[in-house]
Amino acid sequence: MQELKEMIRRDGIILPGDILKVDRFLNHQIDIGLATRIGKEFHRLFEAEAPSKILTVETSGIAFAITTAQQFNNIPVIFAKKYRSMNMDPDQYTADAISYTRGGAVSLSCAKEYFSPEDRFLIIDDFLANGEAMCALIDICRQSGAKLVGCGAVIEKSYQAGRRRIEEQGIKLCSLACISAMDENGIQFQDD
Amino acid sequence: MQELKEMIRRDGIILPGDILKVDRFLNHQIDIGLATRIGKEFHRLFEAEAPSKILTVETSGIAFAITTAQQFNNIPVIFAKKYRSMNMDPDQYTADAISYTRGGAVSLSCAKEYFSPEDRFLIIDDFLANGEAMCALIDICRQSGAKLVGCGAVIEKSYQAGRRRIEEQGIKLCSLACISAMDENGIQFQDD
Hints:
The structure is a homodimer.
Chain A: H1 2-11, E1 13-15, E2 19-21, H2 23-27, E3 29-30, H3 32-46, E4 53-57, H4 62-71, E5 77-80, E6 92-98, E7 105-111, E8 120-128, H5 132-144, E9 147-157, H6 162-167, E10 173-183, E11 186-189
Parallel strand pairs in A: 4-5, 4-8, 8-9, 9-10
Antiparallel strand pairs in A: 1-2, 6-7, 10-11
Helix pairs in contact in A: 3-4
């Protein structure tokens, strides 16, 4: 997605520890026009898979899960919870993920009642790097017995293990901006 | 908003500690059609205030901030962060809030770069009860010198202190479903 790549080049900040900070339009301030067009692009890429629900994880995935769901005629969005809350359902699916930006393992959880074997889940997240969060969401889908029809990431760091981990499970994966290298000289995208 | 009140009556669960759980359409699974119509309703209520940016707080406010921003011709959404992250800006506005559903105080923070004196902020959140989170967002706006044009809550517990705390600051507040009482007999809305 050309517009997205241009925004990453213009407004992305590379931080120590191989972190790409895109707080200006994606992770803290959200560019809503861009977010809506991202939803349209995911719809184009996954239309044939006819998802019936979208699964994401709090926080930054929610915006793009919503704009994608709008394009699929308002299918429901479920976001996995990362943080304990007093009013969480006791009857949950859980899966662990290592978070590099937060440090340490986090346990993602979803109430079981939102999953049924008839569901066709599309997983949407903001970033795909080592694939920890996305593999945990895949694990939750598997536990539930629902069908997983694909995974979409807004930004992928293609030089990390995430894509391989997902594709070797036979899952369709589409990312809208694939970064092949990132260093003091700037950001290279895979298809440039 | 009649549709919202009907959904709260049908799918809301009252938990001990005066907690209203609306995970089926708002806090865990999101009904995207409803969320889009909530955005249209906030647009109608705040159109005259001509906001230029929307401020919310992770996690559950984000969905409704986005659908509202879409109606205002895609103005940017900024979400205050509750949780520490390695790549947060050092240059922040912060304000504390007590969270009843999570237990204890949380510190909300926003990078300063997204606030300017020319901005006209509309604050949107999912719940208004004691007003802790919303007052922290108001405080962040004040610190920044930006203009605050109003506050919108999807669900308000009108018998708690939040509305009074906001209105006594002279701020316009609109909630889409105002609960006047909630107990084992069910949920009463203010305008029923």
